[in-house]
Design goal:
The complex is a heterodimer of chains A (about 60) and B (about 260). By secondary structure, chain A is mostly beta strands. Chain A has one domain: Roll (Ubiquitin-like (UB roll)), CATH 3.10.20.30. Chain A has one helix and five strands; from the N terminus they run ββαβββ. In chain A, a hairpin with a 2-residue loop joins strand 1 and strand 2. The longest helix of chain A is centred in the N-terminal third of the chain and has 7 residues. Chain B has about 260 residues and is α/β, with parallel strands linked by helices. Chain B contains nine helices and ten strands. In chain B, the strands form three sheets. A five-stranded parallel β-sheet of chain B has the order 5-4-3-10-9. A three-stranded parallel β-sheet of chain B has the order 6-7-8. The longest helix of chain B has 20 residues. The chains are: A mainly beta (about 60), B alpha/beta (about 260). At the A-B interface, strand 3 and strand 5 of A face strand 4, helix 2 and helix 3 of B. Strand 5 of chain A pairs antiparallel with strand 4 of chain B, so a sheet runs across the interface.
Chain lengths: ~60, ~260
């Protein structure tokens, strides 16, 4: 299935969000996710199904002003 | 001492965490200036990077408070979603709310700012709105639930200092009990001191320290200037006068030809 991960097309085998994150090597807890512009909270990642063409954003802490 | 959302702090300098030459210099600057609050942000991260986790672990290790921001958000929805993501990652109800309205000046979209602040206050956030010195706007932000105001000094990263000291003085006079944090545009310790002399409660800056030649020393210089400015405000400075007023008594002067 092809999704858009952080603005880039990406082929993934999994359909569940929690599995996609593991598949894409997001192993650290300090991340937040949004699917098609809507936040998906940590506890809701299990059970959230992605579809072809969905837009997934994965963000992490960075220095800011 | 500054008090934000019923938490009291000893230091009125808030420091941004971007643009430093290295993480070690950032942590040294924080420690050397005894900063108790730093800002941070969220950005896309590639899988396997771990950079975000490392940064977060470093900040957590300092034992200080984090104020996440919604930098670069140009819409209410984007800012609100980013705030929720920040709350989850940083585990805090605090949010420095930025809804940007112009890419040249990075000044806030004041209409979007009020709406986003309203939504986030209702969602249980403790909002620190990046705003202008506009008095009416400040009142609207307080009405929707903000308990702190963060008026800009001048455009972000410009180092211009306080563009409108009158506006800041007016804000202070109208809202004597609302914590005011000057956010953005400060370039020199003397400018930060001026903000504090006007009665502001704190100053938030990033570029002026991070991009200086010696961020560690500059951070301390800002902390000292901010402390001096606060002491001056509490000491009730004299009024300015257009006319000279001799400080040495005139009476009793010897009459000499």
């Amino acid at each position: 299935m092809r999704i858009v991960l952080n603005g880039q097309y990406c082929e993934v085998k999994s359909t569940m969000l929690d599995q996609i994150l593991i598949e894409c090597d997001y192993i650290n807890p300090a991340i937040a996710t949004a699917l098609n512009d809507t936040i998906v909270h940590k506890q809701a990642r299990v059970g959230t199904v992605l579809n072809e063409g969905d837009r997934l954003e994965v963000v992490a802490p960075i220095g800011g002003g | 001492m500054p008090n934000f959302y019923n938490v009291e702090f000893d230091n009125a300098l808030l420091l941004g965490t971007a643009q430093y030459p290295s993480p070690a210099i950032l942590t040294d600057a924080i420690r050397h200036s005894q900063v108790q609050i730093v800002t941070a942000s969220l950005r896309r991260e590639a899988g396997g990077s771990g950079a975000g986790q490392n940064f977060w672990d470093m900040i957590k290790g300092l034992g200080i408070r984090v104020l996440p921001n919604t930098a670069s958000c140009y819409s209410v929805k984007e800012a609100v979603t980013t705030a929720h993501m920040a709350r989850e990652v940083f585990d805090t109800r605090w949010i420095k709310l930025e809804v940007i309205g112009n890419s040249d000046t990075l000044q806030p979209d004041i209409f979007g700012l009020v709406e986003a602040a309203r939504i986030l206050c209702e969602d249980g956030f403790e909002v620190f709105p990046y705003t202008t010195e506009d008095l009416v706007l400040a009142d609207k932000l307080l009405q929707v639930g903000c308990e702190v105001l963060m008026p800009w000094g001048s455009p972000i990263g410009s180092g211009r200092g306080l563009n409108n000291p009158y506006g800041i003085r007016t804000l202070r006079a109208h809202f004597p009990d609302v914590p005011l944090i000057i956010d953005a545009g400060i370039g020199l310790p003397s400018q930060a001191a001026q903000a504090m002399e006007l009665g502001c409660d704190a100053v938030l800056l990033n570029t002026a320290v991070a991009k200086s030649g010696d961020p560690v020393t500059m951070a301390k210089a800002f902390a000292d200037a901010i402390s001096a400015g606060r002491a001056a405000f509490l000491s009730t400075p004299i009024e300015m006068s257009d006319m000279a007023q001799p400080s040495t008594p005139v009476i009793g002067k010897a009459f000499l030809a």
